UniProtKB/TrEMBL annotation:
It comes from the Bacteria. Residues 477-635 form the Right handed beta helix domain. SMART domains: PbH1. This is Right handed beta helix domain-containing protein. Pfam families: Beta_helix. InterPro entries: Beta_helix, PbH1, Pectin_lyas_fold, Pectin_lyase_fold/virulence.
C-alpha cells in the first residue's frame, strides 16, 4: 500500500536561523529502524522518483517538499545534513494516519472534564521513542489537533532538534525539546471542558463556566477549556483559583451585566502580601468589557475587565481585552510575577460623567491600598516583577484608546513598583500618557512604537514630597529604542523628580521623537541622567532638556527643527553636552546653558564637539547663572538660520572658557560672532581673554581682486578685510594673490603689500621688475602676511611677504621682504590688507590683474 507524505505548509526544510534550503537532496528512512526507503513515487502513485529534493529557489515554495508517496511505509524520517555535516532526522507520519489520529483524539477528550493518564515526554528528531498519552495539556493537545488536521507546523529546526509536534496512531505522540524544554508527567492532571453553555452572547453563561472553575479549584488545579466559536455572556465576575489555566482560543467572553468578567478573589476574601490565589494562566480569548457608549453596551460602572490581587505568577497571553468602562482592562494589584504577552487592548470609555477617569490604564500596576485595591488586606503590598511584551493598545471598532496604556497612579511611603518592563508594544493613542511609571524602580521601557498620546509617550514621576509627607527616590530607569510620534503635550519621554526626591541611574538612550507637542526628551531632578543617541525631529519646544539635578550627559543626539533650544541645561551642577548635531531651531539657541526658572544656576557644564547649524539666535548661549562652563571644539554655522552670532554670553555668565571653537564661514566680525557682553571669557590656553583668542571666527574667504592698466598710479589689485576687534596679540593674517601681466615695450612693475589700503603702511615692497619686451599673460604670485603685536587704537603690527614671478625673462625669479620696524594701525576698526601694483609707463597694453585671491586668519 502507498502512503502519502510531504506537500503541506509544514514541510519546508529550514536552517537553524529560519532560512529555507532550496534544491537539497533528502534521504528517506523508515521511522524506528533507520532503513532507507527507495521506493518513492510522485503524488500520482505511478511515476517513480529517482532522487527526492526540496523545491528549487525559483519555485513559488522554495525549500518545500512536494507531495510524494512511499510503498508500505506508515511513518518516515527525512534525513539531511546540518551546517556541521551531521545527519539530522525529521519525523513524519503518513497523512492517512494523521486523519485517523485526529478523530480518535477528539473522541478521547472528555466532555465535562476528566483525569489524564499517561506521561508526556520529549525527544530529539533522531530519537525514535514515542510517548504514550491519552490526553495532554490543553495547549499541546490543541497544537497536535490542528497539526493532525493539516493546519499548521510549529517552529523550525534548532540546534539539531526538531521543534515539531506529530501524532502517530491513536495514542502516541512526539513532542520535542524546543517546544517543551522539560519532560512533564500529566498523570492525575485534569481538564475541565465548559459544556452546557448557550454561547449566544445574550444568555448568562456564568454559572456553567464557574462550575468548571470551581471543579478545577476542588481538584487542586487544572485546565478549563472554553470551546471556540462561541460568545459566552457573563453577568458578574467569574472567579479563578490557584493553579488554573483557562484556555479560550477562539472564544469570546462578554460582560452582559454591569461588572467586569474575571478576577482571582471572592468579595468576601482577604489576603496579606502575595498569599491570594496564584499560579493562574489565561490563554487566548476575546474578553469584551462591553462598556456602554449610549448605543451599545451594558457596563456603565467603573470596573476592571480582568483583575488580580494579592497573588503571584499570573500570565495573560494571546488575549484580546476590549471595551473597558472607566477602569482597567487588566489590573495587577499586589501581584508578584505577572506576564502580559502578545495581547491586544482595544477600546475604553470614561463613563464617570465628569471626565475624572481620563487617566485609567489599560494595564494597571497597583498596590494594596484602601481605595485602590478591591479587597483587603490594605497592607500596601506593591506589584513587582511585571512584564508587558508584544502587546497592542488602541481604539476598538466603537470606542477610543485607553487613558494610559500601562502605568500606575497610586503609591505609598517607602513602597516601589520594582522590576517592571514594557517592551515591543504598539501604543496607538492614549488620552494621557502612553506609559506612566509612577513610583517605578528598576524599570525598562524599550522598543515600543507610541503615537498620538495626549500627554507624554513615556513618563516617570514620584509624588511631591511636600504634599505626600514622604519622599520616594527611585533609581535605575532605562528608556531605549522607542519610536514616538505626535504626543500632544509634555515631553515625548520625561523623568521628573523633586529636589528632595531625585531619580538616579536614568538612561534615555537611542529613542526617536517626531513632532512632539512639547519637548523631545527631558530629565528633571535627576542625578547623572544620560540623554544620548536620541533623534528629535520637529519638536514644538526644546529638543533635549535637563533641569536641576547633577551631571546630566547629552551626547550623540541629533536634533532637527527644534521649536526652542535644541539642547538645554538649566539649574544643574556639572554635566556635559558633547558630540551632538543640531540642524535648525525655530527660536532661541542651539545649546543653552543657564539659570533655571527658580534662579538655580548652571555650573561647571562642558559644551564640546557639537555641530550646530541654522540656529534662530546664537549657536551657543551662556545665559544668566552660567558659571565656570567650558565651551571647546564646537562648530557653529549660520546656514539658513537667523543667528547673528555663534556664541552669546550674559554679563553674569562668569568664569567661563571658550576655546578652539570654529565660528568661521559665517561672515561675522569677531564682535558679532562672539557676543560676550561685559563678561569676556578665557579665550586662549594661556589664560588670555582677548577675542577671538584660539577660536576661529573669520577665514575671509570673500576677498576682492582688480586690474591695474593704463596708469602710473599705485592701484589695489587684491584685498581682504581684517575685522575690527578680530585681532588679539599674536593673531596672524595671510593674503595670497595669483595673477598675470602683459606689456608693450619693457616697462617696470612695482608690487607692494600694505595694511590699511593703498595709503596704509607698507608691509612688503618689492624691487621694481623690468619686464621682458611685449610679454603676454606672464604669471606672478604674492604671499603677504601680517601679525598683530599689540592691539588698540595704536596697535602695532609686523609682517612681510614673497613675490614669485615670470615677468622679466624666461627664467623665474623671487623676492622676499620683511618690515624693518613695527607699523601702527588701529586694531579696533576694520583694516584692509592689500596688494598694490604700479607701472612706470601708462599704456592700455600694460596690464596686471589678480586672478585668484585668498585671505585667511592663520592664528
Amino acid at each position: 500500500m502507498l502512503y502519502t507524505f510531504g506537500g503541506s505548509p509544514a514541510d519546508v526544510l529550514m536552517t537553524e536561523t529560519g532560512d529555507v534550503v532550496p534544491d537539497y537532496p533528502l534521504i528517506i528512512r523508515r521511522a524506528g529502524t533507520g532503513e532507507r526507503v527507495t521506493a518513492l513515487y510522485e503524488a500520482n502513485g505511478v511515476t517513480p522518483i529517482g532522487e527526492l529534493r526540496t523545491n528549487g529557489a525559483s519555485h513559488p515554495q522554495p525549500g518545500a517538499v512536494r507531495t510524494f508517496k512511499a510503498d508500505d511505509v506508515t511513518a518516515i524520517e527525512y534525513e539531511y545534513l546540518d551546517a556541521n555535516g551531521q545527519p539530522v532526522r525529521w519525523y513524519q507520519p503518513a497523512r492517512e494516519l494523521a486523519a485517523d489520529a485526529a478523530a480518535k483524539a477528539n473522541a478521547a477528550l472528555p466532555a465535562a472534564g476528566g483525569t489524564m493518564t499517561g506521561t508526556l515526554t520529549h525527544h530529539t528528531a533522531s530519537d525514535t521513542a514515542i510517548a504514550e498519552a491519552s490526553l495532554v495539556g490543553a495547549e499541546a493537545f490543541d497544537r497536535y489537533r490542528r497539526l493532525a488536521n493539516g493546519e499548521q507546523q510549529w517552529g523550525s529546526g534548532t540546534a539539531g532538534r526538531d521543534v515539531r509536534l506529530y501524532r502517530s496512531g491513536a495514542k502516541a505522540m512526539t513532542l520535542t525539546a524546543a517546544l517543551y524544554p522539560d519532560a512533564v508527567s500529566l498523570a492525575g492532571s485534569r481538564v475541565f471542558n465548559v459544556i452546557g453553555a448557550i454561547g449566544d452572547g445574550v444568555a448568562d453563561d456564568r454559572a456553567v463556566i464557574q462550575a468548571q472553575l470551581d471543579a478545577a479549584r476542588d481538584a487542586g488545579g487544572g485546565i478549563v477549556v472554553l470551546p471556540p466559536g462561541r460568545t459566552y455572556g457573563v453577568g458578574t465576575f467569574l472567579v479563578v483559583y490557584d493553579r488554573t489555566v483557562i484556555v479560550a482560543y477562539g472564544a469570546t467572553i462578554r460582560a452582559i451585566g454591569n461588572s467586569g468578567i474575571l478576577r482571582n478573589f471572592l468579595g468576601s476574601e482577604t489576603f496579606a502580601g502575595y498569599s491570594g490565589h496564584s499560579g493562574i494562566t489565561i490563554l487566548g480569548g476575546v474578553w469584551d468589557g462591553n462598556a456602554a457608549d449610549g448605543v451599545v453596551g451594558t457596563v456603565t460602572g467603573m470596573t476592571n475587565v480582568l483583575g488580580f490581587v494579592h497573588c503571584t505568577d499570573v500570565t495573560v497571553r494571546d488575549a484580546i481585552i476590549r471595551n473597558t468602562s472607566s477602569a482597567h482592562a487588566l489590573e495587577f494589584n499586589s501581584t508578584d510575577g505577572a506576564r502580559v504577552i502578545n495581547c491586544r487592548f482595544e477600546g475604553f470609555r470614561d463613563n464617570s460623567g465628569n471626565g475624572s477617569r481620563q487617566f485609567a490604564e489599560a494595564v494597571q500596576i497597583d498596590l494594596a491600598k484602601s481605595g485602590s485595591s478591591s479587597i483587603g488586606q490594605f497592607d500596601n503590598t506593591p506589584s513587582r516583577n511585571v512584564t508587558v511584551h508584544g502587546c497592542y493598545f488602541g481604539p476598538s471598532s466603537r470606542l477610543g484608546p485607553p487613558g494610559r496604556a500601562v502605568g500606575s497612579h497610586t503609591v505609598a511611603d517607602g513602597v516601589y513598583y520594582d522590576n517592571i518592563t514594557v517592551t515591543g508594544c504598539r501604543i496607538d493613542g492614549a488620552l494621557q500618557e502612553g506609559i506612566h511609571g509612577y513610583g517605578w524602580r528598576r524599570a525598562v521601557v524599550a522598543d515600543n512604537v507610541i503615537t498620538g498620546t495626549g500627554l507624554a509617550a513615556v513618563k516617570f514621576t514620584v509624588p511631591d514630597p511636600a504634599s505626600a509627607g514622604y519622599a520616594l527616590t527611585p533609581h535605575s530607569i532605562d528608556v531605549h529604542g522607542n519610536v514616538i510620534e505626535s504626543n500632544a503635550a509634555e515631553a515625548a519621554v520625561q523623568v521628573i523628580g523633586f529636589a528632595t526626591a531625585l531619580y538616579r541611574g536614568v538612561a534615555i538612550v537611542g529613542n526617536t521623537s517626531r513632532s512632539s507637542g512639547s519637548v523631545g526628551f527631558r530629565a528633571d531632578y535627576c542625578n547623572g541622567p544620560i540623554l544620548s543617541d536620541n533623534i528629535v525631529d520637529s519638536s514644538s519646544s526644546t529638543g533635549v532638556f535637563a533641569q536641576f539635578g547633577t551631571d546630566p550627559v547629552m551626547s550623540g543626539n541629533s536634533v532637527r527643527n527644534a521649536g526652542s533650544n535644541a539642547l538645554n541645561v538649566t539649574g544643574c551642577v556639572g554635566g556635559a553636552v558633547v558630540g551632538n548635531v543640531v540642524n535648525g531651531t525655530t527660536a532661541n539657541f542651539g545649546v543653552f546653558v543657564g539659570q533655571a526658572g527658580d534662579g538655580t544656576s548652571a555650573t561647571d557644564v562642558l559644551v564640546s564637539g557639537n555641530a550646530i547649524t541654522a540656529p534662530a539666535s546664537a549657536g551657543i548661549r551662556l545665559s544668566t547663572g552660567a558659571a565656570r562652563c567650558l565651551v571647546v571644539g564646537n562648530r557653529v554655522r549660520k546656514g539658513a538660520g537667523a543667528a547673528t552670532s555663534a556664541l552669546s554670553m550674559a554679563a553674569s555668565a562668569t568664569g567661563c572658557s571658550v576655546l578652539h571653537n570654529d565660528f568661521s564661514g559665517n561672515g561675522w566680525s569677531t564682535s558679532a560672532a562672539m557676543s560676550v557682553s561685559t563678561a569676556a571669557p578665557i579665550t586662549s590656553p594661556a589664560g588670555g581673554s582677548g577675542l577671538p583668542g584660539s577660536n576661529i571666527v573669520l577665514q575671509l574667504n570673500a576677498p576682492s581682486s582688480a586690474t591695474a592698466a593704463n596708469t602710473t598710479a599705485e592701484t589695489v589689485i587684491a584685498s581682504g578685510t581684517i575685522p575690527g576687534g578680530d585681532a588679539v596679540a599674536g593673531s596672524a593674517y595671510r593674503l595670497v594673490a595669483h595673477g598675470v601681466a602683459s606689456t608693450t615695450g619693457t616697462p617696470t612693475l612695482t608690487l607692494r603689500v600694505r595694511l590699511g589700503g593703498v595709503s596704509g603702511p607698507v608691509i612688503a615692497q618689492y624691487a621694481a621688475v623690468t619686464t621682458a619686451s611685449a610679454i603676454s599673460n606672464r604669471g606672478w604670485r604674492v604671499e603677504g602676511s601680517v601679525h598683530c603685536i599689540s592691539t588698540g587704537s595704536s596697535g602695532t603690527w609686523a609682517g612681510g611677504g614673497a613675490l614669485y614671478h615670470h615677468l622679466a625673462s624666461t627664467t623665474g625669479a623671487a623676492q622676499h621682504e620683511l618690515t624693518d620696524a613695527p607699523i601702527t594701525r588701529d586694531s579696533t576698526v576694520d583694516q584692509l590688507l592689500v596688494i598694490t601694483a604700479q607701472w612706470s609707463v601708462a599704456s592700455a597694453s600694460n596690464t596686471v590683474a589678480a586672478t585668484a585671491v585668498q585671505v585667511q586668519r592663520a592664528a
